[in-house]
Request: fold
Amino acid sequence: MSLSLSRPSRRAWPCATGLVTALALAAAPSAHAEPRTYEIDPEHFSIGFLTEHIGYADTLGMFLEGRGEFVYDEQTRELHGGTVEIRADSVFTNHDERDNHVRSDDFLDVDDHATIVFEVTGFAAHSDSQGTLEGDLTLLGQTRPVSLDVTLNKADVYPFGHQQYTLGLSARTTIARSDWGMTYGVDNGMVGDEVDLIFELEAIRQ
Reply:
């Protein structure tokens, strides 16, 4: 099929220009893609922590059960909210007696505070792959603001399994547990006050 074009008269230019503009706008992707919900894959959600033990070495632990989701606009890099919930009694440090102590009211007090919650309050993107996440961490019934350094490792369709579009993310922060009233072992130097928090996760677009 061939198409010939003749040069329009000067009077026809405004109409033609308007048509071209309309077609260009229709064909171009939206400058603001709609935010999408991403659900953290519980099978690929690692929640770790490090804290000093009597100055000899850091104790490495994990929480084995957590879940969460967030609403994110990948094109504008705007985060519109999110929540992470962690089961406090799922703490694991590879030592049964220590795990039971960490679950006690000296530390996590899991009988009265079964869930640790993080609520997103803001996000600032520094580049295509780096940003700072702001949120409120509720621990032992107290809520305090925290900031996390976030890295986007990969964004692509998953190569097997669910084969859905997935974000791979890493996040890090350090808190002083005494800010939440967890003071056991701080004054006598038995257990460090600073706790490094480590998050590695895959989030599936819904």
Summary: The CA atoms of residues 56 and 190 lie 10 Å apart. The chain has one domain: 35-205.
